Structures are given as structure tokens and as C-alpha cells.
User: Which sequence fits this backbone?
């Protein structure tokens, strides 16, 4: 069974650069980064982060109090943007609440709530009363919340494959729709700042003390960010951009270092182009994974230089949002869709001197030009790779 | 909506049901479970560097993954895989939360890099050299059913065999009151598209919307041995596989969606 | 025949075996002059980070990953033990 293109009939994102498509587009156009000096938690490490402001003061609506935690607050904020909830509910009414699947990506879900509980254990070592809600202390916290928030009753799954999570959700949804298990799907992802990722990546010495510089020869590591993003996928619709294809693979190399030749990434790319029936020459824009880690950027730059013509523009947008981990897939998919809609290909922030591995494809500056097809790369911890192919609304 | 797949290999591991041969015999009432619990399996397919770092999740997941592949006669590196766990590495979550509450700058890099939900899948792909894609999912109490459906969907869509691995481990610390799970439990099957397999044994999977899902309860002598593990909802499926006659059972996919499984 | 371990080297060998969960080698068996990384014990960069953490917890000083002498410091049990001896803060 060949995979089939799907329409993307609604999408949204909420990140450090702002809430929603218009705010994100403005930040991209104006080259305005959302990164700020790390002020998260009681003793912040010296780095820069992509923080979404105001979540501390925005508990979930009373009817969803059961799921309240930072990650789900960020999810709600994303759902409430760009009329996404309305679009989702309209799809629910049209197809039936049991026919719209929910496939959500995350890396740490709401572990921040568990972290908080451990700082406030009662004298018996028990969780404080306000955090005694098992659903927020398990990975499916996100998928479960989104399903309930949208009033859906069918399939709901949380995918947690580190940085490829909310790219892979598109592939999973396409298969559910193709087999007829669902007629539409809400895909997306949410990850929020928490001690686990800040101190965890710090322990691996992967975190930069300055704003991240993807593909720069003097890059010093990643900046962590938080974000939420969602997309509504349908088999048929009169308009909307297209999910034309996807590719998934592993590196089978090392848990925290990519394959030195980008072997898995190349396989995922080939699979994606094959499904989309496109060649590298057809690709106008690639939103790269571009985390600003030493190894990722080196491997990725070489892959792009080897495989794409000079007419393909490529960039990392993590200088705007930070690395949003399990939300990176959806955030960068949304940015790729904005690029196709607006014919504006974002460049790469903080890129002064490109790494020698970079070819001419990797852009520092934004490029305004006709674009029909875009790719989004997500290469995760544990070697999980995902490439998505998007086409302009036609 | 119906999916048809063949079952090519089955495996199972719990400390008092260490292996599918033992588990099946206990489920059929043919033997009593061993008195002495077995120690966690040793992931021999991993190179020494990965093996010594492997936490319990990886140990039990890789054991059942390897045994299911052996039983199927398929090479691990040929198989895309679906890894499913309700709570993931809940012991490492306890470690992370405790350390963050006291000495956050002293997080162990090895434990952090094992903390990702796809750790078992990652170690499996490294140990087998498999470039075939994996996914790692959770769906809370519906994890086993959702994972089985995902594996079958991939097998049918991509017209190739798929490995499905499910596991949960023992919770520790304060988190154990919220993410409840006792003991180690792992189980795996290799599924193939029905038209590609010589196997007689197959599954017909159908989803059904219901007012409220009532999954088939576990009935065998194995039930009490794994009842307190978060993945216990998998047991009725393996009880049916243990019996040689055709049977049906119901797994839950959500509160209002059932997965009806007919096992031939 | 491998060189004999000093008391400090034995203590460090025990820390390495425990921290990295090394199988198939006891602390006493680690040749103090054999390489720790790539060959010899075959440790990798994640092990180096883990060891740096355990050493900082036990001996009270931070091994810096950008120290240009790291290749030499980490080259063997003996060189690492000597580095700890000159920098330790705890008794």
C-alpha cells in the first residue's frame, strides 16, 4: 500500500517567539529571536533558553484541573491559538468523536510536575495533595489531556522518541487514516522546560552558555526551549497544504551521538522523497534539525551538501525557538508550512562563520522566493530519524 | 475496521514466568510457576559498553524482543519495531526527581541518557544494528492495546513484518504511589501481513466504539503473578495465545473504544 | 605482568568499576598503565563524563572537559590517580 498525501487543514504553534502563526511569521521576518538568558528554576545553569512567558499564571480551565501542570498548560495555550480548537471540534462533529485520532509527541511530558512533587514531599515522603493526580505523572499525560480537551473518544497515543517525536506523529497518523482506523487526526507535540532536560543535557555537556549558533564554526552546543504545536490532518479537503510524504529510520549507532555518516538520516530522506515522488531538485526549503551541537550540525551539513543542489535553501530555526525536543518536529513542520504559505524561507540566526562542512544551501539570511516543496528534518536522541515532506496548497 | 496479521513469534518474561515456554504452561494450568523468582535477564546481544549501562527496562525489553525474533525466524535487523511502555523507566524518573530536588548539578550523564522513553528501542537498534524505524509509545492503561494496533497497522501498511515489544518495570520512591507498578514484565510478538506468512496462527483485529470498554479479564494462574505490574492489561492476550484453540478477546484502546481480537 | 596498584590507584579502580558497572573485570585486575579509553578498558566519552561526576562527588574537585591535558590525565589509571592526588579537596 503506497502512502497517500493528506491535507493539513489547520495548524498552529506557540513558542518563545510568540503565540500563533502570525506572531511566529513576524518574528521570522524581523529576525527576532525568542531566546533569553536562563532564569528557569531555583538555581539556573548558565545557558540560554526559549521560554514561553506567563504559563505560571495560567492554570487550566476548571473542567481540566485534573490535568493541570506546565506541560498541559502549554498544550492548552497552543490549542487555544489560531482557532485550532474550533477546527478540531468542527472535524469531530463532521467525522464523529471516535473517528479523529490523537497522536501526540513529547520527550518528558509532564515530568516537571513529578520534579516539583519531590521538592514538596510531606513528612511521610508522600506527594503533596495538590499533585496527587496520577495522570500527570506518566508519559501519556499529554495525549490523554489533548484527547479530553478536544472531546474525542477514539484512538489516542503519546509518542516519545526524543527529538523525532512530533515528526513521527505525522507518519503514524497517515497510516491510521490510510487503513481506515481514523478519518482525520490531531497530531502535534508539546515539551516544556524542566529540571530533567536542563540539568540532564548539562550533564552531557551539550548545552551552550550563549545563544545557540546552528552551523556556526564556533558553535558551543544547544539551547533548550519549550513549545506546543498542532496540526489537523484530513484525507480530503478543498484547501490546505499537503503532507506529501515521510521517512523514518534509525542510526543504530549510539544513544547520544549521531551516525558519523548520517546513514540513518539518509535512509529516512530517501524514503520520504520516494513516498512524495519528489527528487532533491524539487525541494525549495529544508528546515534542518540544526541543534548547534558539534556532531549533529557537522553530519547534517555534509548530508545537505552531498545530496541537494544549490537551488535548495536550508536553515535551522532553533536560533529563534531553541531546541524544543519532543515539540521540535511539529514546531518546525509549522514553520515549514508558513514558509510555503508566505514564500518566505527563514535563514539561520546567530550564524556568523559557517562550519566548513556547510555547502551553499545553508542560508544565514531569509530568502523571499517562490517555493513549492519543503522538508523538515528531526533527528533524535537514541538515533531516531524522521523526515517530513510538505507541499504548498494547490 | 479490520486488520489481519499472522503471529510469527511470541515471547514473555516476568520473574516467576521467565520465558514463553514457562508462561504458556502456567497459563494453561499444566504446571505451577517456579517458586524462586529469576533475576533480570542479561542483554547479551548488547556490546559490553551498552550492556553494562542497560537499566531494567532495556534488560527485559531486549530479552523478549530477542526471543520473539528467534521464535519467528526473522532477522532483527529486518524488522521495524514498536516499543510500548506505560510508565517508561520509572526507576530513572525517581532518580532524576530525587537528584534534582537535592543536587541538580550532579545528574549522572548515563542515567540521563537512559531516561528517554525510547531508550529500550535505541539500545535494541544499536545491539542488532537495525536501521529499520522504531517507535516508542505510551497510552497509559491502554498502552498494550494501542501498541498492538500500531504494530499491526505498520505491518499492513508497509507490507512487512513488525516486532512489537511491551514492558513495564517496578516503580521506586515517592513516584511509585502515582505510577504504580511492581516487578518486571515484558512481552513481545512478531506480526506479519497475513498474505506473507506461512504461519497458521493469526489475528483479526477490529476496532469498535462502545459506551464503555470492558476488556477481557485475565483468568489464568499467571494473573496474580503480574497483576500489580502496569502492563498487566496485556495478560489476557497472552492467555489466549497460550491456548491452542481459536478465541476472541477484547483489549481497551480508550474508555470508549475497544479492540476486538480474534485469535485463530 | 601488569604493574602493581598503589592504594590510591586501587581506590580509583574501585570507583571506576562501580560507577561504570564494569563487568568481567575486578578493580585489582585493572593494569594501572594500560589505556582507559578506546583500547584497554574501552571507555567512551559518556564514561568520561560519568567518571568526572563521580570523581567530583568523591574527591571534591571538578575535572574540566576543556582541560587541554585531559588526554594525558585520562590516559591511564595511574595518570588519573596522580591527578586526583594533586587536586583532591577531601581527605
Assistant:
Amino acid at each position: 500500500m503506497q502512502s497517500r498525501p493528506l491535507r493539513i487543514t489547520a495548524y498552529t504553534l506557540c513558542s518563545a517567539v510568540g503565540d500563533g502563526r502570525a506572531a511566529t511569521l513576524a518574528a521570522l521576518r524581523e529576525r527576532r529571536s525568542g531566546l533569553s538568558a536562563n532564569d528557569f528554576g531555583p538555581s539556573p545553569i548558565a545557558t540560554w533558553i526559549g521560554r514561553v512567558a506567563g504559563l505560571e499564571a495560567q492554570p487550566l480551565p476548571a473542567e481540566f484541573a485534573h490535568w493541570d501542570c506546565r506541560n498541559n498548560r502549554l498544550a492548552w495555550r497552543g490549542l487555544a491559538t489560531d482557532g485550532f480548537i474550533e477546527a478540531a471540534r468542527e472535524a469531530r462533529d463532521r467525522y464523529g468523536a471516535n473517528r479523529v485520532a490523537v497522536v501526540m509527541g513529547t520527550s518528558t511530558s509532564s515530568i516537571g510536575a513529578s520534579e516539583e512533587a519531590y521538592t514538596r514531599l510531606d513528612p511521610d515522603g508522600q506527594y503533596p495533595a495538590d499533585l496527587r493526580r496520577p495522570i500527570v505523572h506518566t508519559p501519556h499525560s499529554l495525549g490523554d489531556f489533548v484527547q479530553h480537551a478536544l472531546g474525542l473518544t477514539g484512538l489516542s497515543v503519546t509518542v516519545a522518541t526524543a527529538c523525532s517525536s512530533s515528526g513521527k506523529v505525522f507518519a503514524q497518523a497517515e497510516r491510521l487514516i490510510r487503513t481506515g482506523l481514523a478519518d482525520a487526526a490531531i497530531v502535534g507535540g508539546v515539551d516544556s522546560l524542566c529540571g530533567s532536560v536542563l540539568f540532564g543535557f548539562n550533564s552531557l555537556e551539550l548545552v551552550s552558555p550563549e545563544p545557540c549558533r546552528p552551523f556556526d564554526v564556533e558553535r558551543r552546543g544547544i539551547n533548550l526551549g519549550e513549545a506546543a504545536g498542532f496540526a489537523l490532518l484530513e484525507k480530503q479537503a478543498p484547501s490546505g497544504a499537503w503532507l506529501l510524504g515521510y521517512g523514518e529510520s534509525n542510526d543504530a549507532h549510539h544513544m547520544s551521538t549521531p551516525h558519523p555518516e548520517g546513514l540513518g538520516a539518509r535512509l529516512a530522506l530517501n524514503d520520504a522523497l520516494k513516498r512524495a515522488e519528489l527528487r532533491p531538485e524539487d525541494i525549495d526549503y529544508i528546515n534542518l534539525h540544526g541543534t548547534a551541537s558539534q556532531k549533529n550540525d557537522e553530519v547534517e551539513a555534509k548530508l545537505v551538501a552531498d545530496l541537494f543542489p544549490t537551488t535548495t535553501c536550508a536553515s535551522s530555526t532553533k536560533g529563534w525557538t531553541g531546541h524544543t525536543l519532543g515539540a521540535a518536529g511539529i514546531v518546525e513542520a509549522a514553520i515549514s508550512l508558513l514558509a510555503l504559505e508566505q514564500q518566505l524561507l527563514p535563514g539561520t540566526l546567530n550564524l556568523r562563520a559557517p562550519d566548513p562542512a556547510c555547502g551553499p544551501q545553508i542560508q544565514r539570511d531569509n530568502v523571499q522566493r517562490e517555493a513549492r516543496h519543503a522538508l523538515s528534518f528531526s533527528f533524535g536522541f537514541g538515533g531516531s530519524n524522521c523526515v517530513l515532506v510538505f507541499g504548498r496548497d494547490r | 475496521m479490520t486488520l489481519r496479521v499472522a503471529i510469527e513469534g511470541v515471547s514473555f518474561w516476568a520473574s516467576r514466568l521467565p520465558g514463553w515456554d514457562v508462561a504458556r504452561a502456567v497459563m494453561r494450568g499444566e504446571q505451577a510457576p517456579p517458586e524462586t523468582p529469576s533475576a533480570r535477564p542479561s542483554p547479551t546481544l548488547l556490546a559490553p559498553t551498552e550492556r553494562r549501562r542497560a537499566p531494567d527496562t532495556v534488560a527485559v525489553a531486549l530479552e523478549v524482543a530477542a526471543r520473539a525474533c528467534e521464535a519467528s525466524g526473522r532477522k532483527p535487523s529486518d524488522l521495524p519495531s514498536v516499543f510500548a511502555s506505560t510508565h517508561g523507566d520509572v526507576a530513572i524518573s525517581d532518580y532524576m526527581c530525587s537528584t534534582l530536588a537535592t543536587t541538580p548539578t550532579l545528574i549522572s550523564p548515563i542515567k540521563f541518557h537512559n531516561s528517554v522513553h525510547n531508550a529500550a528501542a535505541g539500545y535494541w537498534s544499536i545491539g542488532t544494528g537495525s536501521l529499520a524505524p522504531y517507535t516508542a509509545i505510551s497510552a497509559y492503561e491502554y498502552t498494550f492495546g494501542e501498541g498492538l494496533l500500531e504494530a499491526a497497522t505498520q505491518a499492513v501498511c508497509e507490507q512487512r513484518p513488525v516486532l512489537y515489544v511491551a514492558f513495564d518495570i517496578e516503580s521506586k520512591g515517592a513516584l511509585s504511589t502515582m505510577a504504580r507498578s511492581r516487578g518486571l514484565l515484558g512481552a513481545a510478538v512478531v506480526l506479519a501481513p497475513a498474505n506473507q506468512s506461512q504461519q497458521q496462527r493469526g489475528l483479526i483485529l477490529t476496532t469498535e466504539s462502545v459506551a464503555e470498554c470492558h476488556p477481557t479479564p485475565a483468568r489464568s494462574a499467571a494473573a496474580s503473578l503480574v497483576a500489580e505490574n502496569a502492563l498487566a492489561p496485556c495478560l489476557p492476550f497472552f492467555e489466549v495465545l497460550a491456548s491452542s484453540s481459536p478465541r476472541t478477546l477484547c483489549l481497551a484502546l480508550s474508555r470508549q473504544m475497544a479492540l476486538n481480537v480474534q485469535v485463530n | 605482568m601488569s604493574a602493581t596498584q598503589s592504594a590510591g590507584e586501587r581506590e580509583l579502580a574501585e570507583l571506576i568499576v562501580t560507577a561504570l558497572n564494569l563487568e568481567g573485570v575486578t578493580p585489582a585486575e585493572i593494569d594501572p598503565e594500560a589505556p582507559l579509553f578506546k583500547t584497554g578498558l574501552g571507555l567512551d566519552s559518556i564514561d568520561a563524563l560519568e567518571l568526572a561526576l563521580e570523581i567530583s562527588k568523591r574527591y571534591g574537585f571538578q575535572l574540566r572537559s576543556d582541560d587541554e591535558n585531559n588526554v594525558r590525565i585520562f590516559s591511564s589509571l595511574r595518570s588519573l590517580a596522580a591527578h586526583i592526588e594533586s587536586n583532591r579537596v577531601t581527605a
